[in-house]
Design brief:
about 325 residues, 10-stranded mixed sheet, about 45% helix, globular
């Protein structure tokens, strides 16, 4: 009788846990969801988060509120999410900076991207464009490199993300020039100083870059992907001048470690379904993103591989961790 009683108690516990999980999956979400972006308004990460967040609001039936928390290449936003309750109500809409690149760029990263986050969904990827002020007499990558060689250490370039930081360093290494890098809390801030004449150039996400180029305030000298973009085929790939130059950025949604699997599944399905919609694809393409849907398991493996990739890029670019 004693053993039968224990078996019945165990079975009852399993049923309660199963039923609780089912109720949780059906009831989530019951209040607004906070989507934290580690870069300022107007950045590619911010724009993509607002497009996807709007779709999640419609499919989940609760407001998805985008909150910008720039600083430390995404680490400030990452830590806020990691410290939050693992209930699916505080998520990080991040680029590769916080989730992979910071492992190589920071001497003491305060978190482990492979353990402290719950992977939820892949979103998209894009390339950057080397842009300078429209009135700058420099007209090509070759001319920019020539100017830098004539003025070692005096040509300034601003970066507002790990991708743009690595782009500057790789340009310097592959081009054999010394460029003075200046950090910013976001690419839009660096763009402002390029237009104001404080900086010689920056690397901006292709959506922001094309908007400025079409507006006549900036001009593009080259894209960072290994080949030209269909969005701007007239812009040369930097790799055409510097073989081996191939750097792109990506975006994904993660949460703090320990989010229930049923909640993760619900968020992943909602995000993946949103990325399939033609109008969403069109809006993301307008800011330079191609969709990159992934399951949570696929995203986990992708993050691990990307940490290795960005570690190699940082090493090859001779960037010293800060």
């Amino acid at each position: 009788m004693y053993f039968i009683k224990k078996i019945l108690q165990a079975a009852a516990l399993v049923f309660v846990l199963f039923a609780t999980g089912q109720v949780h999956a059906q009831s989530y979400p019951q209040r607004p969801i906070k989507l934290i972006v580690p870069f300022p308004p107007g950045s590619a990460t911010d724009l993509a988060a607002r497009i996807v967040g709007q779709q999640l609001t419609l499919s989940l039936g609760q407001p998805v509120i985008v909150e910008n928390k720039p600083g430390a290449s995404g680490s400030l936003a990452a830590m806020e999410v990691i410290r939050s309750a693992p209930d699916g109500y505080t998520l990080l809409f991040s680029s590769n900076s916080a989730i992979s690149s910071n492992v190589a760029l920071l001497k003491k990263i305060p978190y482990d991207p492979t353990k402290d986050f719950t992977p939820i969904a892949g979103v998209g990827e894009n390339m950057l464009v080397l842009v300078t002020k429209s009135t700058n007499p420099v007209k090509s990558i070759q001319e920019l490199l020539s100017l830098a060689k004539q003025n070692p250490g005096k040509i300034t370039a601003g970066y507002g993300s790990s991708s743009s930081q690595i782009c500057i360093a790789m340009l310097g290494k592959l081009g054999g020039v010394d460029i003075l890098s200046v950090p910013y809390k976001g690419i839009p801030l660096a763009i402002n100083d390029v237009m104001g004449g404080t900086l010689e150039f920056t690397f901006a996400d292709i959506g922001n870059a094309l908007a400025q180029i079409k507006g006549g305030t900036m001009k593009g000298l080259g894209v960072t992907a290994g080949k030209r973009s269909a969005l701007a085929p007239e812009l040369a790939a930097i790799a055409e001048v510097l073989p081996g130059f191939d750097i792109t950025a990506w975006f994904a949604i993660v949460g703090p470690a320990g989010i229930p699997k049923d909640v993760v599944s619900k968020l992943n399905v909602a995000t993946t379904d949103a990325l399939k919609k033609p109008d969403v694809k069109e809006k993301l393409a307008a800011i330079g993103l191609s969709t990159m849907p992934m399951s949570p398991d696929q995203l986990q493996g992708f993050i691990v591989s990307e940490i290795g990739k960005w570690t190699r890029l940082v090493r090859d670019a001779n960037i010293q961790p800060e």
